[in-house]
């Protein structure tokens, strides 16, 4: 069964060397539930429940149903806890409460109360507590299919008393488990985030509504990014401020694996849902407030800055500088240094002239009167961070310049 799962891509490839040693393939980049869109969490839940159903049918049991046991490999969820399976001996699925906390309840609160699931994991590493969900849903919880999960206080072990504890038949564990898995699957389908797409958000419709770009500018920008990606042939690309992944997909088309980061949940949801996004690992994360680690000593799961460190052969920062420098008040030199910390060799950055309409818009939004750096000053900041200019491409409107930089220090 494990070999079949590995061949299917559902379980990370592994080899048992002896009775004390297991080795597994290293996945190039690991994202965390606190960085996933609702759709990614749903995909991880589907995988977890599917493996549990197949394990039960084969006489085995999944001891843990944690979202942290799933990683995304090129945009696809993969189960990685190789030691989480044991023989099936009990009617109760001890991990049912955990499955609810990590998957069903976060997606339910996102749907009903507008709390994105990734924010729930930032608040509660072990998923949404049942009592918190009960209070947030209010009396209306009794009118939904989820009332067994939040109808009453959880047991001391953290499992809702109504899940997995009813006696069906002492002689037929498998039949009881099949019914339980079907019930959890029914609940999970009810919080399928694809029912809510497109996900409304501040930047979710950016690609369709960016009137500050002329069509000729966009055509030149796409051609330039595609050409540089082909010529450089990077194995790993980091797209910072990716929106829904338009340029991430151009990089992926060159054969690269892509990490695509944006703060907008709606935009990331669109990227994840796009069938053309194969090979792209999307993350929801604000670049001006990247989180540290999780778990014991904040080191069990490394924070995003540590995981991005020198991760990419090519890093892209397209239409991003003004959001960080003006919108988030990050010093230009610090932005340039962050880019240098992320990339092994190449950087593509979109430099923006002070007279660009978006600069004026953000300045007016924030009542900023300080001058925005010139294109020459922006370029100089990246050179001071250890880059040299390899190639420039001025977009036809004249206010934006794409620069291909190479690390020299």
UniProtKB/TrEMBL annotation:
Keywords: Methyltransferase, Transferase. GO terms for biological process: methylation. InterPro entries: SAM-dependent_MTases_sf. One of its GO terms (molecular function) is methyltransferase activity. This is SAM-dependent methyltransferase. The keyword Membrane does not apply. Pfam families: Methyltransf_23. The keyword Oxidoreductase does not apply. It comes from the Bacteria. SUPFAM superfamilies: S-adenosyl-L-methionine-dependent methyltransferases. It comes from Pelomonas aquatica.
